[in-house]
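FAQ

Q: What does a record look like?
A: Structure on top, sequence underneath. For example:
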């Protein structure tokens, strides 16, 4: 397929807002196909890697587990599985895990404290953050 044929194919199969965006920028079948795809991806923020998309999907499932310890262990397991598929998805694994833990917490005071710790103590490990959350929650250990 020539680049012109590729561009025509892409334009032919675009629909809705993506089609309006590309046409509104004056792109035609003479436009480079990579440019058309880049515009669509940039405008509609579809730049996540497959691993990042998987992490977002699996984290929704993990959040249903309201016990801090089991939730954190599930987060680690999912992170390991995603690294097997796409190592770039978890480039800053420790930071990502700490952020996800803070997001999973329903107690607003603990959520604020974990976010503060994440910002002020970049070297703090995920396990140290989790242990502080467990200590804060005391006996219940529930998110």
């Amino acid at each position: 397929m020539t680049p012109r044929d590729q561009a025509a194919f892409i334009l032919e199969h675009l629909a809705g807002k993506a089609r309006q965006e590309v046409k509104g920028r004056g792109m035609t079948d003479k436009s480079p196909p990579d440019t058309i795809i880049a515009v669509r991806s940039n405008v509609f923020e579809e730049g996540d890697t497959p691993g990042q998309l998987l992490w977002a999907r699996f984290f929704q499932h993990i959040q249903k587990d309201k016990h801090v310890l089991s939730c954190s262990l599930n987060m680690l397991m999912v992170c390991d599985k995603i690294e097997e598929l796409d190592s770039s998805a978890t480039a800053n694994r420790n930071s990502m895990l700490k952020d996800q833990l803070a997001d999973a917490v329903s107690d607003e005071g603990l959520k604020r404290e974990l976010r503060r710790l994440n910002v002020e103590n970049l070297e703090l490990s995920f396990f140290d953050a989790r242990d502080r959350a467990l200590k804060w929650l005391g006996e219940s250990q529930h998110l």
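Q: Is there anything notable about this one?
A: The chain has a mean pLDDT of 77.
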